[in-house]
Structures are given as C-alpha cells and as structure tokens.
Specification:
single chain; alpha/beta; Aspartate Aminotransferase, domain 1; Aspartate Aminotransferase, domain 2; seven-stranded mixed beta sheet; four-stranded mixed beta sheet; 16 helices; 40% helix; binds pyridoxal-5'-phosphate
Amino acid sequence: MNIPSYQSKYRQMTEGSKLLYKKSTKIFPGGISHNIRYFQPYPFFVKKSKGKTLYDVDGNAFTDYWMGHWAQILGHASQPITKALSTQVRKGTLYGTVNEASVELGSLIQKVMPLAELLRFSSTGSEATMYAIRLARAKTGRRVIAKIIGGWHGFNTPLLQTVNYPFEYEEGPGLIQDEEQFIESIPFNDLDRSIKILESIKDDLAGIIVEPVLGGAGCIPPQEDYLTGLQEFARKTGSMYILDEIVTGFRLSLGGAVQYYRLDPDLFTLGKIVGGGMPIGVVCGKKEVMALADPVKRNSKQSCCAIGGGTFSANPMTMTAGMASLKYLIKNRRSVYRKINNLGNQTRQGLNKIFSEARIPVDVTGVGSLFCTHFLNSESERILDAADVGKSNRNMLIRYQVALMSNHRIFFLPLKMGAFSEAHSERDMNALFDSTRSIISSGILSS
Ligand SMILES: Cc1ncc(COP(=O)(O)O)c(C=O)c1O
C-alpha cells in the first residue's frame, strides 16, 4: 500500500516518538492513557511546552490548538501559573486537610459565577458530572437522567452511552445493560423531538444534563432556544437542569455559558480551565440542591448525598494554579476574551472562505475561541448535531490535520476541535490559513 507523502514525512520527523510508542504499547493498552490521544500512525511524544508551542522528543515544535484538552487558556507554562506553583510546591503538594487556598478559589468562582451558591471540588470532570447526576437523583427522588446524543461527560459509568456514532451500540464491554435503563438520550438542537422524548419519561426524570456547546462531539453551538427550551421543561416538570460547563466555563466568557446564553441551571460542572492546568472537577449549584451533600447535617434518619471529592480534591497545587488562572482572567477579562473570541470568529470565517474558494464543502463550526472544520458530503450537508458530524467525511479531516502536523508543524488532536489561547496571535491564524491553502493545492484533500 502506498503511504501518502505527508504520512511518510510524519514518520521521518518523529522517529524518537515511534520508538517511545513501541515501548508504550508494552506498558499501556494501546500505548496511551486516554483513548483519544492515539492517532495513526502513532502520536508524537511531548517533552515540554511553552506558550502556544509543544516541543516533541525529536526536536519538532508544533503550534498547538489542542491546548491540553482545551484547558490551557493562558497558554502552556504561563508565567502567572508557573510562578504561583513554584512557590506552592515548596509549601507542600497535598495536605489531605481543609486549606485556605480552596476557600480562596471557591470564593473566586462564586464571584464570577453567582449560581455556584455552594460547590464541591473533585479531581476530574468525570467525577463532577457523576456527582451532579447523583445530586439530581437525590433531590428529586427520581431515577432517569436525560443526556444528549453524542454528549461527552467523561468516563463515569452511567453517562457512557450514546457517545460514539452511530450511537446504537454499547460503548464497550464491561458496561452492563441494566445501567442503560435509567439514561435517556435526546437529539441536540432538535427541541421538538427532545421534548417529545422527555414528555414520555417526565414522571421519573431526575435531570437533564447538557454541554451548552457540544464539544468532543464536534464543536456544535446550540440553536436559539434549544437550551432555554430544555431548561423550561426541567422547571415545569420538577427535574434538575444540569449544564456541563467543563469546556465552556471561563472559555465562552468569564461567567461561562450561563452568562453567554443567559441560563439558570440548578447544577453545573466545571473543570479544565478552572484548574489552571492541574487536575480538577467542580460540581456547583443552588443551595437547596448542593446542601443535600452536607455531611455535617447528616443525622441518623437521613444521610447526605455521597458525592465524595477524593484523596486529591482541593489539593493546594490545583487550588493555587486555579487561582492564578482565574485572577489573571478576571484582571484581563476584556483583553483576553476580546482577543481569543476575535481569533475564533476570524478563523471560522477565514477557513470557510478558503475551502469555499477551493470548492471543498466544509462547515467550520464553533463559538468564541473554539472551532472545528467538518468536511461535508451528500450524507451530511450541515452540522447541527453529533449525527451530522458522524456522517461527515472524517477521513478527510484526519488527512487535513495530519498534513498540518507533518507539513506545517500545526497540531490539532485529530478529529477534535481547536481552541485559541492568550498565547496565540493573528500570525498563528494567518499561518493556519496559509498552511490550509498549501494543503489544498498539494491535492492531499482531493478525494
Ligand atoms: C464536557 C466535558 N465533560 C466532562 C469531561 C470529563 O472531564 P475529565 O477528562 O477531567 O474527567 C470532559 C472532558 O473532556 C468534557 O469535555
């Protein structure tokens, strides 16, 4: 089989990574510690990062649009965070007790997100979403959670359903069917169909969990009224409205999607940016719901909702990094959000124009600083939900993204959306445009 030239170029420039990958496969299933980090022929291994750049073990420097699962909004190894962490590391990394830093980060979150009347820290976003649905069930005494088809809320067991196209199969062995019966999936951006499904389960509906912008499934913004329509339904039926803001929190705006789309969830989850590059998850919400997790008020008749937190929750390193990040964002909010959102808007417009001039049908979706190119075909002529993404030309997207890596040292995790950070500039955006034009004219994208 002929290996396309951009792939052989990738192999030539990543020989050290190839060796490390081989070694990795003997240690980790598939050679990786997060499924999406694998791509063909093998992922490059990173040695260090700074600003907008990832440096690999072979001496390549990539302009990064993956930005640590979109968490690194200030850029890699940013000065405020590195400085704060290097001081904290000498004072201790894990006290395993309550600490002042957690109070400070918690109150900063409350300051910019007033709906976080009470909150609980965990170490990952997966835990935070798991706790959110447990709280919804505790509050309502009902069992069913509605999620979006294609919605991603981490690896917690109950929500590992209808994640991957075509959404009809179980997400893998090890999940048992009994778990499925209390999850119902609804189509993103189709309010009528969603409400119809929700109506049929409303008596046992504990909550509706939704990413305001479908992230992992393809960077799809909500259509007008979709999110408020779900919210109204939840209110009307006494179920909890849960926004998963793990990607959108502090990204769409300082107040996240709640502020951007003027929403009023009962519960919401945060992660990624709020940890300043350190592991974190947060479940936040209205007092009357979050108070169910109060262990101090537990009595012999009524125990609290067990939402844990875990060994590493609220550890002082994460709290310190989160604080440095939020303080910077609060202080520089006008310039940061203006810059990254402008770059996102211009990039969506610019890429759409470049592909359209080349008569390659695409839809570059996204909102604010997030964007993703979808190659359209007769099965998928627009991108409104995760099924449209599944039907689009995914192979073409991989080709485009691997060609960006090998020929232009620009990194998107294949199939995933890109994010701008404070460390990117217009020059990076223009380099992405030039590289895209060059890939188009090289014929790599002709099917
Ligand atoms: C919307 C959303 N929710 C939850 C998660 C899970 O977070 P974590 O990977 O920290 O467990 C992710 C991770 O990408 C996410 O994008």
